[in-house]
Amino acid sequence: MDRRRIVITGVGLTAPNGNDLREFRGNLLDGKVRFQNTELRYIGKVIAGVCSFNPLKYQNKKEVRAGTRAGSISIYCAREAVADAKIQISDENRSRTGIYVGITEHGNVETENEIANIGNYNYDVRFWNHYHNPRTVANNPAGEVTVNMGITGPHYCIGGACAAGNLGIIQGAQQLMLGEVDLAIAGGVSESIHTFGIFAGFKSQNALASNEDPNKASRPFDMARNGIVVSEGGALYTLERLEDAKRRGARIYAEIAGWASNSDGTSYVLPNPERQAECMARAIAHAGLRPDDIGILNTHATATKAGDIQECEAIRKVFGSGRYPIINNTKGFIGHAMGAAGALELAGNIPSFEDGIVHPCHNLDELDPGCDIPGLLQREKAVRPPSEIRCILNNSFGMLGINSSLIVKRFED
Hints:
The protein has helices at residues 21-30, 61-66, 69-84, 108-118, 132-136, 140-149, 164-177, 196-204, 242-247, 273-286, 305-319, 331-334, 341-349, 352-355; strands at residues 6-14, 35-40, 44-49, 97-103, 155-159, 183-190, 230-231, 233-241, 254-263, 296-298, 326-328, 391-398, 402-409. The protein has 413 residues and is an alpha/beta fold. It has 2 domains: 2-247, Peroxisomal Thiolase, Chain A, domain 1 (3-Layer(aba) Sandwich); 257-409, Thiolase/Chalcone synthase (Peroxisomal Thiolase, Chain A, domain 1). Strand 10, helix 11 (305-319) and strand 11 (326-328) form a beta-alpha-beta unit. Helix 7 (164-177) packs across helix 13 and helix 10 crosses helix 11 (305-319). The protein starts with 5 loop residues before the first strand and ends with a strand.
């Protein structure tokens, strides 16, 4: 049965407030945020979550110029995850390694920049970037990893809007269970802060956050919230079958316990709490658990008025009058990293299995009554619950009504 048990053996990430798991986790526990004001074409000043990782750690300057920001994020995270897992990519395993990267969108950044650039040359396509096609194909971020690392197994991206980070992990686990690969590098990435279209879209919907202090702009569940802080980032995991991880004496962070994904089928942008509740309930059942087995529930809440309330309504439907888990949120610290959100937010909570501490919500000064649910960790400081954390439920929901819930549990042999 170890072949059907999938475990996490390595973590590689970059977020606005950290470039590895230790730094990221430490800043979540210490309440450190690093949002900044940036200038964006056609819009002007916006608040964004910008990553500070060094792409030249694993690429040369020519590779960075030819590739994409999403590709650089993916390469950095994949390399960091493999190093963390103490795995060497070699002729023995390169064809049995798969890359599964969740993305919100891809290609907008490059297309916008190239159109702006040839505008300086009277739109003469001779000045169009020669790498445009490989830079903008939907499989680019995953494909750049294979080229950089010499991996010859399968690779593709999972376009799942803001549910994509969870879906990348789920896809990797499924491919391992099917025996298609022996190692999966899986998760999600986002380069969204580099496209004005994302910001313009949220701004036109009155869903783009503003605040005199950038670090106070992202405020899920708070009465003063006024929208989303768009962020870039990524988190990729090495996933293995338990028997393979045990054979090589790997460190195991957690076990993938269960998952679910469904669709609202009702709106382009407005979430459906009935379907969100259904997704959570199905994930819990798939893991063979009950609602009161969940120790931490990481919410998707993005700091939009309706979205936060509707997710809380969905949570009430699942947990009812029973015992609620500790409920937290990560976007107050890192903003909304779109396709990377689910994978990054999971990474922020996984260390709870080891240290027994749960990071709080951030910038939650006055709770919206519509978001008042039992277990919501409102305080600014991390807490240590009296009983050990055994299971984490990670929510990620996206536009066009795509929902994903992923459950990981403390590894027990």
